[in-house]
Amino acid sequence: IPEHGLTNFEVYGKATLPVPRWIIPFSLLRWLLPKVASILNPMFLHLNAFFDSTPFRKRVDDDVHRFYAAVAPRVAVARERAALV
User: Fold this and answer.
1) Distance CA 39, CA 36 (A)
2) What is the pTM of this model?
3) SS3 state of residue 27
4) CA geometry: angle 10, 1, 39, nearest 5 deg
């Protein structure tokens, strides 16, 4: 989404699954996780592009727990830095 810019990130993790290794081999996980990420990525991009028309927008506006008010100064700094690029 060009108007918001993009951020690259890498995800590393460690999980303990009580499943024998021969049932879910590591190679299957290495194949499956990028597939799942490639399915979820367009959904997140769509949510970002049409955020104002989602129920999440109302939740941000209501700000019941004052979370968004607390992070607003940091968001403003990030927007200023993005405008300089």
Assistant:
1) 5
2) 0.48
3) helix
4) 55
- Residue found under tokens 């990028």: 34
Q: Token digits for 69?
A: 């008010």
Mean pLDDT computed over every residue of the chain: 84
Element (H, E) at 47: helix 26-49
CA 14 distance to own-chain centroid: 19
Rounded Cα distance, 76 and 73, in Å: 5
Distances (CA, A) of 34 to 4, 10, 37, 39, 41: 24, 11, 5, 9, 10
Contacts of 57 (CB under 8 A, 6+ apart): 51
